[in-house]
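FAQ

Q: What does a record look like?
A: Structure on top, sequence underneath. For example:
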């Protein structure tokens, strides 16, 4: 029996979570949408997981496993985000499980100390019962933590959610054969972030990679790439040769998004050895105007942006062609479509941040060309995230200032 009043989420005590989960079974889509919105706001608030997040997962897994659940795709989407946060931030490398576990180490002790702090805080309060959306003692406890300990505690919450969702991987693997194509794609996407389960997930993903629905096949191919290469000590029965055959065939598929998925996977698995065929496929996507495909969950369906990220995996041999393609496309893009392209271009041109006071004339040709293009690319300045990137490299934080810097 879970004491939800003893658990916290973004707005305080988690006593509302059970009703919201039950509402996901409602026949009324408006009720389901409202419940899903509430859960995203409370146990996945702007990507942050909380103490209650992992406790909600087993009940959400039950919903996904039940064919009678009205919208299993939406529930599986919530589960995947509870596990990993925002997936686009983990591309092109995949889920950094080892570093996450290292960051979260000791978080359990911090939580235990927070519980004691909350109990002491409750003892000092009047007998009046707190409303669930008011601050509770654990939130006050956060104010006492150093930034590194607060990061450790929230990394622990996120890791607990990741592990809890991982218990549902057998269900997700079974969903790869579901009659609902959107659910098959969502399942392949969820499996992509669990490299520790590669041996069990690879065979069904290889079957999904030849799915008749192109979005499912492409998603499965990318997932295969993100699971990575076999580690040392992997059993000899590992289907390495089958993987190579499937990826090779998919690179010649008549469906463009399947070729895209194969190129993304090969760039991840083979790196600079992937070759010119893979590079040409990815470069072709950067040059396209119609590069959005909402049915593919990765990178919010922005296939062009993911192609730019993947090309960096191929090493310096294709850097010049990639850089030229990025400069050609950036002025025509805006918002989230422009961001990954601009980020990749910055990483190519600026291996290190500029020293304070560096004049424009001290920059090399590639760096100067990029800044002139950025100064003329209105759309890329729409996002605050981009301002953080240019600031990191020691560059002007507004389009007007960058244009003035380039003229100087």
């Amino acid at each position: 029996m879970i004491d939800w009043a003893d658990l916290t989420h973004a707005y305080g005590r988690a006593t509302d979570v059970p009703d919201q989960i039950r509402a996901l079974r409602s026949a009324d889509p408006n009720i389901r949408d409202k419940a899903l919105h509430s859960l995203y706001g409370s146990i996945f608030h702007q990507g942050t997981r909380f103490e209650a997040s992992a406790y909600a997962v087993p009940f959400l897994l039950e919903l996904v496993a039940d064919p009678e659940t009205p919208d299993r795709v939406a529930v599986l989407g919530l589960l995947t985000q509870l596990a990993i946060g925002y997936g686009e931030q983990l591309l092109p490398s995949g889920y950094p499980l080892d570093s996450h576990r290292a960051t979260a180490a000791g978080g359990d002790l911090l939580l235990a100390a927070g519980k004691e702090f909350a109990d002491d805080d409750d003892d000092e309060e009047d007998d009046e019962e707190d409303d669930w959306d008011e601050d509770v003692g654990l939130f006050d406890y956060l104010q006492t933590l150093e930034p590194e300990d607060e990061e450790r505690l929230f990394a622990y919450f996120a890791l607990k959610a990741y592990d809890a969702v991982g218990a549902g991987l057998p269900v997700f693997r079974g969903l790869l054969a579901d009659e609902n194509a959107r659910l098959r794609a969502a399942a392949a996407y969820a499996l992509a972030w669990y490299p520790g389960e590669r041996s069990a997930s690879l065979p069904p993903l290889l079957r999904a990679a030849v799915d008749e629905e192109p979005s499912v096949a492409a998603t499965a191919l990318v997932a295969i790439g993100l699971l990575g290469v076999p580690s040392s000590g992997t059993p000899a029965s590992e289907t390495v040769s089958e993987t190579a055959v499937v990826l090779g065939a998919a690179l010649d598929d008549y469906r463009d998004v399947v070729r895209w998925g194969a190129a993304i996977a090969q760039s991840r698995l083979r790196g600079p050895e992937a070759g010119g065929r893979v590079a040409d496929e990815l470069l072709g996507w950067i040059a396209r105007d119609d590069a959005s495909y909402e049915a593919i969950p990765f990178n919010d369906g922005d296939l062009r942006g993911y192609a730019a990220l993947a090309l960096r995996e191929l090493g310096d041999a294709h850097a010049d062609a990639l850089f030229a393609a990025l400069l050609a496309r950036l002025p025509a893009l805006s918002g989230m479509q422009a961001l990954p392209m601009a980020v990749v271009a910055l990483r190519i041109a600026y291996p290190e941040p500029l020293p304070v006071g560096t004049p424009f004339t001290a920059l090399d040709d590639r760096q100067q060309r990029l800044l002139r293009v950025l100064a003329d690319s209105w759309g890329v300045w729409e996002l605050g995230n981009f301002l953080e990137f240019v600031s990191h490299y020691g560059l002007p934080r507004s389009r007007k200032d960058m244009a003035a810097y380039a003229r100087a």
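Q: Is there anything notable about this one?
A: Residues 126-135 have pLDDT under 50 and may be disordered.
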